[in-house]
């Protein structure tokens, strides 16, 4: 980490029942510091409900597919608990069920296991623009005083790409965004063994790899679960070169007007006086 990166105690929010929980607040922009109105994490468990309420979370945006969220074990129970606590739960998939079918994901994961994470992130930018990304941006636009939590499974890929768009939109420096993304590697240390075990048990995943003459290897799984700064640097280049930068992406792909983008920026930044 460089001196531009916050200390390890910040931006983390250790909470029972939820991994990789941290805020996007407190990062420097040309107009001030980002507000602590957006939190990111891995998929929350039932044990995290009361803690999220204490953090002031008003809404949880789940970026997983319907099939993926349903297979998590606690999805419906967590939704009911959050609603009892006055926290809105919204399932806003980046990928639809067809794109998240076992076969489709095995194909995507095989590519990632070979070390090509960035291609998958390009897919996330394209798939999420008019669905999950738009929903989160709409919340920031219309409900600026109601903090939100966004998450996927590990809080690394889909969550990481959306958070990068938000930070780039308000002018956080690329290197700081890359370092913020890499903070997930700290959380992944405690999640690595369980995630590796889950991946190795997915027979359809192994079947697709076998058909290609490949195998589920520890090195490949670690490639999938990595969050290196260079990956985010590459994504930010794609955002600029292929999508015209964060502002153009939010306007043209997510469907917001120039005035709405201005207000989203304003709602994300605590201006200096």
UniProtKB/TrEMBL annotation:
Pfam family, one: Y_phosphatase3
Species: Sphaerosporella brunnea
Residues spanning the signal sequence: none
All copies of domain Tyrosine specific protein phosphatases, residue ranges: 131-176
Top-level taxon in the UniProt lineage: Eukaryota
Matches recorded under InterPro entries: Prot-tyrosine_phosphatase-like, Tyr/Ser_Pase_IphP-type, Tyr_Pase_AS, Tyr_Pase_dom
Name this protein carries in UniProt: Protein-tyrosine phosphatase-like protein
Recorded GO MF terms: phosphoprotein phosphatase activity
């Amino acid at each position: 980490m460089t001196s531009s990166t916050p200390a390890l105690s910040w931006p983390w929010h250790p909470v029972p029942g939820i991994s990789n929980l941290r805020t996007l607040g407190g990062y420097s922009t040309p107009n001030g510091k980002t507000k602590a109105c957006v939190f990111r994490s891995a998929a929350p468990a039932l044990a995290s409900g009361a803690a999220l309420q204490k953090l002031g979370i008003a809404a949880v945006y789940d970026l997983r597919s319907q099939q993926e969220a349903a297979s998590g074990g606690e999805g419906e129970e967590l939704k009911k608990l959050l609603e009892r606590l006055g926290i809105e739960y919204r399932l806003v998939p980046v990928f639809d069920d067809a794109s998240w079918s076992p076969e489709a994901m095995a194909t995507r994961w095989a590519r990632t296991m070979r070390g090509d994470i960035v291609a998958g992130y390009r897919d996330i930018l394209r798939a999420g623009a008019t669905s999950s990304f738009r929903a989160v941006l709409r919340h920031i636009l219309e409900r600026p005083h109601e903090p939100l939590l966004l998450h996927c499974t590990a809080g690394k890929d889909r969550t990481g790409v959306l958070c990068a768009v938000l930070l780039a939109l308000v002018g956080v420096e690329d290197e700081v965004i890359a370092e913020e993304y890499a903070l997930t590697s700290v959380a992944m240390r405690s999640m690595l063994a369980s995630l590796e075990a889950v991946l190795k048990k997915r027979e359809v995943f192994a079947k697709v790899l076998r058909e290609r003459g490949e195998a589920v290897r520890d090195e490949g799984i670690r490639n999938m679960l990595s969050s290196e700064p260079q990956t985010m640097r590459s994504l930010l280049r794609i955002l600029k070169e292929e999508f015209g930068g964060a502002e153009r992406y939010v306007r043209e792909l997510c469907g917001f007007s120039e005035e709405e983008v201005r207000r989203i920026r304003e709602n994300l930044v605590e201006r200096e006086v």
